Structures are given as C-alpha cells and as structure tokens.
C-alpha cells in the first residue's frame, strides 16, 4: 500500500505544466525500486522535423537525472543561443529600435563618435557627424523619433543593419572576424549612459510591444521599415523545460546585450544568472560605458576616442562565445580561456542558428541542434554532420524555403579571422564537401 500511494502521488503531478508526463522510473542510487524520479519527455503535440524529438528525448534519458550515471553535482550542461534560436527574430534589434523611437540614444561626449567604437571607419564617422551632431549637445538624447531626427536614425540603422556609412563603404574595419562583429557590439555600445537595470526596463517595454504585434508586423524607424514582432518558439521552451526538469544545467550564450536578454529569459524559465551576453564596463555610478568587458587574452576595453585604446576586440561572437562560456560557466579567467576544453569537460548539447554560433555548437559533445536559416558556415557543419551529432530543423515560425544552390563548403562557405572566404573543415579538421539544403518546409 505504501508503494501504491507513492505511485499515485507521483502520477498526480502530471499536468499541462509538464507538457507530457511519463511513468516514474527508478532513481539511480535509490533504495531499490521504491525511490523514483519523474522523467519528462518533449510534448508530442509540438511538431519537430523527422526524428529530432525522438533523439532529443533519448539524450535526456541517457544523461538526465534518470540515468544511472547522473551526478547532481556535475549536471550535464546545455547551451542555447537566444535570437532566432529560442525566439523568432532578434531582441537586440528590438531594443535598438525601441531606443531610437523613444529618443534614448545619447549624443557621445565631445560629439566624438569614434569614442563609441574605435573600429569605425571614416565613412561611418562622416555619416553620423553630418546626420546626428547638429541635433543635441554631448550627453543629451538624440531626437531620433522626430522628423528632424530621421536622418540620424537612418544613419544609425545603416551602420547597424548594413555596416554601411555615408558613401556606402564599410562602417567598420580592422577586426578579427572570429572574435568580433562590430555592428552587434555597436548596438550594445549605444546603450552607454544607462545602468544595466535601466537597459532591462527599456528591453521589457520593447519586448512587450513586439510580443503584442502580429506575426509579420513591421514598423517605421527613421524612414526605414524594420521588423516589429517577436515570438518565443513553443518547441524550444518545451525543450529547455524538459532538460531542466530532467536535471540539465541550461544556459544562454548570446551576442546580444546581456541586460536585454535577461529581461526576456524568464519567459522560458531561465534564471538571469544563466544568461551570458555582451557585458559592458561600468563607470563609477554604475552606468554602462562604450567599453566591452574582456575575456581570455583580451582585457577590459578602454577608448579615449583618439589614439589610446585597448581591448574592445572580443565579444560573444564565434570563438568569443567559447571564451565567455569557459569564463562564466567553467570559471576559467586565464588568458587561454578562448581555447577548447577537453571533451570530457565540455557541454553536452548546443543549439544555434547562425555563424555566430559555430564554435560553441561544434564544441558540444553529444547533440547539436541547428535551426535552418541558410547561414552557410553553420549549415556546412550541420549537413556535414560530424559523428552524426547534428540535428537540423526548419524555423518553427516563417521557416526559410529551400536554398536552391549547394552550400559551397569546399570553397568559400567559411570565413577566416581576416574575413577571407575559404573552405570548411569539420571537427576532425577534414574538408567538408559541398552540401545540399535538405531540411526545409515541404
């Protein structure tokens, strides 16, 4: 009778909150078959491509708390990108758009836009000086929501969205393409003058507006039409919850402002201290500066807007994501934190959608989930499918159609540190042949 009452109490836990509920199974190390744990599987009502759900369920069975090898003191680690992986669209975009339409971007000190990012080209600087300098004094809000501020908003968006300055030339140059995407960094640098808490409040306003907007909605910022909606993918929310309930340690690693993503993370039950994003150096009053916090062999940033600068050359982008994972998740503050950890001391699962995710996805030791956005370098790795560890899924909302051309994996799909296109190699340093786009809405 004791056992019957225990079984009933466990089964009573089954509810819509669990998404699906499976019979309890013996807990490892428990007293015979009397000790049980609840094993959660992915919701079968939520569609996945092919056998992806089956393989993800098998992973949590193999490594989760129902496994005989499970150690609660060394939980298996799962890493997720945020934008276009857990959610549809980009919350970093939304935060910047909201700041532009609410006049929250501050004129830089001395009207010196080079202080925002020392990598900005002359063409980028000219664009901003002409369009934005006459509008506000240093430290004051730029009226980018107003008619007379539309040209300034357009200049900012051209640099951020297109990496283009006044004459259409590149707005940034001289950076390591495996450590830095300066347009992404600049969107966070434009939050200077506010505390992380204030940035999170801005983000919450932007997120609420975007979640209320219909799928496909756009908005006008300056004179440009840009995206206006966000959604959380139900399948990814279910996957994160399943992993957490089955004993995984789940983290977000993103190339977006950390305070922005922290404002959204609770929507998928991820604690704010499990979000790793772009982190800024704070001034004496707790406000964000234009300088990036350092990682590995790159120190915290300094930039006087003239000839003196250091750091600001690495962010949570490609190899930089690995550095920040090693620094925050594994506590590696050494100059070699950008190097890969031994395979038995890495995360077991990774999910991503773009080139920025390539390195931390490749580092995962068990399964690697890719949402197909036709990003060549990532898709070459995904379809190359090293050791059959990759799962490819179409985006769950507005998925991309099939890319007609083969991915040029053997020639130009991958990018080196200096920005040159070249062939792709897999995790064993073997060439990846050209790949066909095979996972798309039928």
Describe the structure.
By secondary structure, the chain is of the alpha/beta class. Helix content is 29%, strand content 14%. It has twelve helices and 18 strands. The strands form seven sheets. A six-stranded parallel sheet has the order 9-8-3-14-15-16, sandwiched between helices. A two-stranded antiparallel ribbon has the order 1-2. A two-stranded antiparallel ribbon has the order 4-7. β15, α12 (376-384) and β16 (390-394) form a beta-alpha-beta unit. α3 (91-101) crosses α7 (196-212).
Largest sheet: 6 strands, parallel
- Report the count of strand segments: 18
Helix segment tally: 12
Q: What is the alpha-carbon Rg in Å?
A: 23 Å
Through-space gap between termini: 53 Å
- Mean pLDDT across all amino acids: 92
Strand line-up of the largest beta sheet: 9-8-3-14-15-16
Assign an overall shape. Answer: globular
As a percent range, the share of strand residues is 5-15%
Low-confidence stretches: 1-23, 27-35
SSE order, one letter for each helix or strand: HEEHEEHHHHHEEEHEHEEEEEHEHEHEEE
Query: What structural class do helix, strand and pairing data support?
Result: alpha/beta
**Helix share bin:** 25-40%
């Amino acid at each position: 009778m004791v056992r019957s009452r225990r079984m009933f109490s466990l089964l009573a836990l089954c509810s819509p909150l669990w998404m699906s509920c499976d019979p309890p199974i013996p807990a490892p190390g428990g007293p015979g078959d009397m000790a049980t744990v609840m094993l959660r599987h992915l919701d079968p009502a939520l569609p996945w491509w092919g056998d992806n759900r089956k393989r993800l369920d098998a992973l949590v069975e193999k490594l989760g708390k129902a496994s005989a090898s499970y150690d609660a003191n060394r939980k298996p680690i799962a890493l997720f990108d945020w934008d276009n992986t857990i959610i549809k669209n980009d919350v970093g975009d939304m935060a910047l758009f909201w700041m532009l339409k609410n006049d929250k971007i501050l004129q830089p000190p001395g009207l010196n836009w080079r202080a925002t990012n020392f990598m900005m080209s002359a063409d980028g600087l000219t664009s901003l000086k002409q369009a934005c300098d006459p509008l506000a004094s240093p430290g004051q809000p730029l009226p980018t929501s107003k008619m007379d501020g539309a040209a300034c908003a357009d200049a900012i968006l051209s640099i951020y969205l297109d990496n283009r300055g006044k004459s259409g030339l590149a707005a940034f140059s001289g950076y390591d393409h495996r450590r830095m995407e300066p347009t992404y960094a600049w969107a966070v640098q434009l939050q200077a003058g506010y505390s992380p808490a204030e940035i999170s409040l801005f983000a919450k306003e932007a997120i609420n507006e975007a979640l209320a907007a219909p799928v496909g909605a756009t908005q006008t910022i300056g004179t440009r039409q840009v995206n206006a909606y966000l959604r959380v993918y139900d399948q990814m929310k279910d996957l994160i919850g399943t992993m957490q309930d089955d004993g995984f340690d789940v983290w977000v690693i993103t190339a977006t402002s950390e305070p922005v993503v922290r404002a959204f993370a609770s929507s998928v039950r991820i604690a704010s201290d499990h979000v790793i994003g772009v982190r800024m150096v704070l001034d004496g009053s707790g406000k964000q500066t234009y300088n990036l916090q350092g990682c590995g062999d790159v120190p915290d940033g300094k930039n006087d807007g003239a000839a003196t600068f250091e750091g600001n050359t690495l962010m949570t982008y490609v190899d930089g994501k690995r550095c920040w994972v090693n620094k925050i998740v594994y506590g590696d503050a050494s100059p070699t934190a950008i190097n890969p950890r031994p395979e038995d001391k890495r995360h077991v699962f990774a999910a991503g959608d773009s080139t920025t995710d390539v390195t931390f996805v490749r580092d995962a030791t068990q399964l690697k989930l890719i949402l197909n956005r036709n990003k060549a370098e990532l898709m070459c790795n995904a379809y190359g499918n090293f050791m059959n560890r990759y799962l490819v899924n179409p985006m769950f909302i507005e998925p991309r159609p099939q890319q007609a051309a083969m991915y040029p994996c053997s020639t130009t799909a991958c990018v080196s540190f200096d920005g040159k296109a070249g062939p792709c190699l897999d995790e064993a340093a073997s060439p990846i042949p050209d790949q066909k786009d095979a996972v798309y809405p039928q």
